[in-house]
Predict the 3D structure of the following.
Amino acid sequence: MRKIAVYALTRKGAQLAKSIARELGSDLFLHKRCGTSEHTVQFESLRKLVSTTFPRYSNHVFIAATGIVVRVIAPLISSKDRDPAVVVLDQNGRFCISLLSGHLGGANELARKIASITGGEPVITTATD
């Protein structure tokens, strides 16, 4: 399986992130306000963190508002055949949005897999899927 980074910004989101990371064998990144957790990297600035992790992981899962994620990853996006998969979830796990590199990068498949874990709905907008 390709390397996955899971990020959460809130305490409620952190609980979901821990569950997803455990199921997928992912690396877990939690904002410092989420408290400490075993096998977790804490961060203060999502923008600063993602500027270093974006090229290092082939899959990124954010439990955060879509707008925040778009603003953070926008300067890092280069092309559809090189960008990593990006999936965004609400903190309840209800919607799993394939945001970037859906078809080529595997975000559509990852969104479906995460939705099966959370009991949520995958949101796929790729015309071919």
